[in-house]
TrEMBL record:
The lineage of its organism: Bacteria, Pseudomonadati, Bacteroidota, Saprospiria, Saprospirales. PROSITE patterns: HTH_LYTTR (PS50930), RESPONSE_REGULATORY (PS50110). This is LytTR family DNA-binding domain-containing protein. GO terms for molecular function: DNA binding; phosphorelay response regulator activity. InterPro entries: CheY-like_superfamily, LytR-like, LytTR_DNA-bd_dom, Sig_transdc_resp-reg_receiver. It comes from Aureispira anguillae. Residues 144-234 form the HTH LytTR-type domain.
Amino acid sequence: MKALIIDDEKRARETLIQVASLCCPDIDSFKQADSLLSAILSIQQERPDILFLDIDLGSDSGFDVLKHFEGEALNVIFVTGHNDYVLKALRASAVDYLLKPVKASELMAAVRKIKQKLSQQQQQESLDSLLQNLNNKEESIKKITISTADSIHVIHVADIIYCESDKGYTTFYLADSQKVMASKILREYEDLLPKDNFMRVHQSYLVNLNHVMRYDKKDKNFLVTTLNHKIPVSHRLKNKLINYFDKLT
């Protein structure tokens, strides 16, 4: 496989080549680019199998590289030192990324995932979702991408009614009555989804408050959603929910 490393720092490029050479024998060719222009030219000329793309390229962004090739399927592994909204967008969009300093084990896992990608269309859907999240000026996630055994689902956050946790998996219940199961714990999605709209009301349930129709707080202590789901509310989190409704009145 041919790899192109796009980073404006020479030392970072050389370090990544050194680590990849030791732990990723499938990569037999490394090319380098240090700017937006050189990255675009290198992709056009080399047609690499994998892009290691740094998010910060001096006055430009790695995302500018993607925008230039919008609509084309690229095997991208992002490399970033970010731990803020950009990182949240990467996680929500189910794209592959490495945090600096790059660890050999994480690099091997990312390359292995690239080799196992299901289809070029699904890769492009993940990148499209990422760009839309990053273009959102409110800095809240608008779409999340969920990778299952046979497909990738791009889900609008507004369409999520609630999420249910079950033994290390999370099931999304959507406004069109679909259910999508993800192989990640509920806590990961609680961290991603906007806290103004989503509330943990039970150890196993995260609810989109925009889809709540009624709260029965006397007898059964449950929420009723727009599709008539009944969601239990734990005693520990009950007051938090009541405070939310009090602010609306």
